[in-house]
Hints:
The chain contains 13 helices and nine strands. It has helices at about 5-15, 55-60, 60-65, 100-105, 110-120, 125-130, 140-155, 165-175, 185-200, 210-225, 250-255, 260-270, 290-295, and strands at about 25, 35-40, 45-50, 75-80, 80-85, 90-95, 205, 225-230, 300. It is of the alpha+beta class. The structure holds flavin-adenine dinucleotide. Flavin-adenine dinucleotide binds next to α1 and β1.
Amino acid sequence: MVGSGPNGLAAAVICARAGLAVQVLEAQPSFGGGARTAVDPEYPGIRHDICSAVHPLALASPFFAEFDLAARGVQLAVPEVSYANPLPSGRAAIAYHDLQRTCAELEHGSSWRTLLGPLTAHPEGVLGFFLGDKRSLPPDLPTTIRAGLRVLAQGSPAWRMLAGEDARALFTGVGTHAISRMPSPVNSGAGIMLATVAHTAGWPVPAGGSQVIVDAMLADLEAHGGQLGVGEPVTSAPAGVVIYDTAPTALLDIYGPAVPDRYAKALRRYRYGPGVCKVDFVLSGEIPWRDERMASSPRCTWVEHEPRWHARRARSPPAATPSTR
Length: 325
Ligand SMILES: Cc1cc2nc3c(=O)[nH]c(=O)nc-3n(C[C@H](O)[C@H](O)[C@H](O)COP(=O)(O)OP(=O)(O)OC[C@H]3O[C@@H](n4cnc5c(N)ncnc54)[C@H](O)[C@@H]3O)c2cc1C
């Protein structure tokens, strides 16, 4: 496996558990790619998630549902507020974990309920559609059709299904996670899937930072005989069957003229998506939210062993305060 981001590690874990001899080779000095956590250079007591910090799919993806992070000691806190968008008025548009409360507090909450209500009743069907391999029939056809129609409706300039500035802002915010042109079926698909998860499994934050998820996968890999190499970019083809968790263009650098012409042409035409950056703040006090509902909703549910949302149970938070928000 070349690259140790969460997708590469998931593939490596699956292969190692299937009895294959697996080696993971990572260019960076530490494992995890976009799911790494690093110590702040100025404030050593503070750790930052370099990219991903909030993990909607840590509960909802089929891989993690089976891997069961909670049973491996990873503490996942599901906040009462999944996400929110500031509005010019100073009031925020808020997507709570609770769909009913979300609809009650939006200006035209009924349109949010029409968009997401039927999907939140069948989250597994929604995830089966979006995360399925697209080569076989999705598991729940009626839900697939409902989700597909909503993707088309929300992915066009007509923005037909949502009424009210707040609901539209909320969907814009969740759709931008796809980092693509807007509106388009790509960001509307990401928005529909993530919003469905926000109101069902929730958007969990791992206590200790994203690295704890990476470390759990590394531990499982090693327990199944996997070998790890770090700090060296792969520049020539390793022996055996290789899976690349890299940009597709890495294949041109590594295999050069051995890449078939047609595929090489496609790789040369490959265009990277828009750039994105993230700013982390080290806080000297409480966040001065302009919308007081944001300040008054700090409660979390802690996830126990069963990874599926319908079996999630609340319990008291552990003694240690999570270092990530
Ligand atoms: C700013 C930002 C914030 C984000 N926030 C979130 C969030 O809150 N929640 C969320 O779910 N997602 C978030 N994401 C997305 C998430 O980080 C990615 O979806 C995820 O990291 C993709 O994983 P991956 O395994 O496909 O690739 P990556 O994580 O990119 O891993 C690829 C790995 O391959 C290695 N590599 C590349 N070339 C070579 C080579 N030649 N030899 C050896 N190794 C190589 C790289 O060093 C890297 O470690 C965010 C992304 C960004 C950029």
